[in-house]
């Protein structure tokens, strides 16, 4: 698990290899990631958007931007936690992801970025 705290918001990430399958006559490697967002600040915040940089050992980096996470824009009061799971496909058994969440602080009404630390995506059978 990797963790990082930005402005009182703690992000923890766990990953899992889900298997391989063929799509468009090409093998793909499926990974899941489980993210926990903890509000250790004194203010209520809301997650508004996400930005991902997905690195695949056999492809160029892919950038993904979107509103919320898995169709939600969670509000976290001080001390609250939000957990969600998602996934990605790679053409290689090795890769990584990193990014940030765009949040709004309800007290100051200002937006700020919360860093999601780099997390590795590795198929166990491909590791030495």
UniProtKB/TrEMBL annotation:
Listed InterPro entries: ApaG_domain (IPR007474), ApaG_sf (IPR036767)
Family annotation (SUPFAM superfamilies): ApaG-like
N-terminal signal peptide: none
Domain ApaG: 3-128
This protein's name: Co2+/Mg2+ efflux protein ApaG
Gene that encodes it: apaG
């Amino acid at each position: 698990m990797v963790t990082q705290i930005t402005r009182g918001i703690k992000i923890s990430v766990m990953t899992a290899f889900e298997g391989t399958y063929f799509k468009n006559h090409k093998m793909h490697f499926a990974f899941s990631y489980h993210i926990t967002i903890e509000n250790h600040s004194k203010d209520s915040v809301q997650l508004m958007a996400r930005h991902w940089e997905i690195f695949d050992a056999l492809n160029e980096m892919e950038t993904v931007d979107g509103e919320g996470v898995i169709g939600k824009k969670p509000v976290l009061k001080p001390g609250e936690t939000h957990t969600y799971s998602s996934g990605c496909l790679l053409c290689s058994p090795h890769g990584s992801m990193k990014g940030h969440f765009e949040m709004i602080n309800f007290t100051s009404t200002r937006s700020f970025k919360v860093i999601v630390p780099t997390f590795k995506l590795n198929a166990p059978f491909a590791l030495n």
